[in-house]
Design brief:
The protein has 243 residues and is mainly alpha-helical. It has helices spanning 13-36, 43-49, 54-57, 64-89, 96-112, 114-121, 135-152, 157-161, 170-178, 189-210, 221-239.
């Protein structure tokens, strides 16, 4: 007789109740941030909105940093989910056109969730430090992997290594070699340089818009973003030699 496959043990009633409570707390904290901004996040205010005491909330999040870490990781995961859904819906191999669509999803998420975007990329919360190699790091790397696939998918490692970029210092190359594979450390140094430049370009445009610095462009902000990202992607692809 064939061996029976092991089955995972379903979560207990206590575990399900705890998971539901954590989701409710995170939802309340996100609502609090939307109304008051990330800097005003308060465990006491979140607990009050749920009819809990702060002491009861401590059973789920022992301090403010634990709650902030969960909120940041969730925001990155929600953003990455939006990017992945968009990427999955676009036909064809990676190209500047595909990258533009995924970048547009990034912009849309930031505009739709400005307070959560500010939590991720605004002024760092005072006294908060994300845990090293913790859930926030894993979540942001997941998002970066999506952009890396859209920017460099279809190119070989040899092509990426031969990309036309200004000379890189030996110390920078050594630093890149120390990065984890899921933090762009698997890219040749030339491609990594292009990736970080592209990320700064794309992200900077969204930051300017979300924080209200390009409002003078009015309804043309989307057009400026699309044109700039397309030109950037096309320039990067021209720097990578043909197979």
């Amino acid at each position: 007789m064939p061996a029976e496959r092991p089955t995972s043990t379903p979560p207990s009633l206590r575990e399900r109740r705890r998971a539901a409570a954590v989701r409710e707390i995170l939802d309340a904290a996100e609502e609090h941030i939307a109304l008051n901004g990330p800097a005003a996040l308060s465990l006491r205010a979140v607990a009050r909105s749920l009819g809990m005491t702060v002491q009861a909330l401590y059973h789920y999040f022992p301090n403010r940093d634990a709650l902030v870490t969960a909120l940041i990781a969730k925001a990155y995961d929600d953003l990455a989910d939006a990017l992945q859904v968009t990427a999955d819906a676009v036909d064809g191999p990676p190209s500047p056109a595909r990258l533009l669509v995924v970048a547009g999803a990034y912009r849309d998420w930031g505009i739709t969730h400005p307070e959560r975007f500010q939590l991720l990329y605004g002024t760092p919360l005072r006294y908060y430090a994300a845990p090293v190699e913790g859930p926030t790091t894993r979540a942001v790397r997941r998002m970066g992997a999506i952009f890396q696939r859209e920017l460099f998918g279809g190119f070989t490692a040899a092509q990426l290594a031969a990309a036309d970029v200004p000379p890189l210092s030996a110390s920078f190359r050594e630093h890149l070699a120390l990065l984890p594979a899921n933090a762009q450390g698997d890219l040749p140094s030339a491609a990594a340089s292009l990736f970080f430049g592209a990320w700064g370009h794309l992200h900077g445009l969204v930051v300017l818009e979300v924080f209200g610095h390009t409002g003078f462009l009015g309804e043309h902000q989307a057009e400026v973003f699309a044109s700039s990202v397309r030109m950037m992607a096309e320039d990067i692809h021209r720097r990578i030699p043909a197979a």
